[in-house]
Design brief:
Hypothetical upf0131 protein ytfp, five-stranded mixed β-barrel, alpha+beta, disordered N terminus, 33% strand, 8 strands, 209 residues, two-stranded antiparallel sheet
């Protein structure tokens, strides 16, 4: 839910802003959608005129971003969500009025691009009725120092258990995410597994490498 130095193979339906149509290149009167996969789903904090459940293919929701400020410290980083390549992600899409597009883009840039660990992209999402649209969202940059990669559930849980930053314990962040997703009818089995391990008082710490 926050340019790229390396060249990568384009994903299907993935519109990289550096090589494909920008927001300005959208057809006149084509609705502007924003896709949320984390806290943006229940706390968008911007004006919109419609919200719909949507599915994004080619990316999945993952605790793949190190947090050394809000949910951890440089010495003991936590983990926050990013959209990483592969699989699919159920989320929520918001349609923004034409008059508000630039203001919403500016707000989202300030919210997501503090450290530039994400990059903006236009990606194809599909709604429950089968209709599709391009949606503005932010995907994880694998070339960024904050990219954690694909951690095992046990390794991710240990970071979540120990992480605590300016916004509080990392485990609270993951718990709130799982609960909010459940309220929207979304079950993320991997996040749920990581949360269960992080909350398990009997979990043994992993040995340092």
């Amino acid at each position: 839910m926050h340019r790229e130095a390396t060249v990568r193979r384009a994903m299907p339906h993935d519109h990289d802003f550096a090589a494909a149509p920008s927001v300005a290149a959208l057809q006149p009167r084509q609705p502007f959608w924003v896709f949320g996969y984390g806290s943006l789903m229940w706390r968008p904090d911007f004006s919109y005129i419609e919200a719909r459940a949507a599915t994004l293919r080619g990316y999945h929701r993952a605790l793949c971003i190190y947090s050394s400020r809000y949910r951890g410290t440089p010495e003991c980083p936590g983990l926050v969500l990013g959209l990483d390549r592969g699989g699919m992600c159920r989320g929520r899409a918001f349609r923004v009025a034409d008059a508000d597009v630039e203001a919403v883009k500016g707000y989202l840039h300030e919210r997501e691009m503090i450290t530039e660990v994400y990059r903006p992209a236009l990606l194809r999402v599909v709604f429950n009725d089968g209709a599709a649209a391009l949606a503005y969202t932010f995907v994880a940059r694998r070339d960024h120092v904050q990219y954690a990669g694909k951690l095992s559930p046990a390794a991710a849980a240990q970071m979540v258990r120990l992480g605590c930053g300016r916004m509080g314990p990392n485990v609270d962040y993951v718990r709130n995410t799982v609960l909010h997703l459940a309220e929207m009818g979304i079950v993320d089995s991997r996040l749920s597994e990581i949360l269960a391990l992080a909350e398990d008082p009997q979990a043994a710490p992993l040995a340092s490498s």
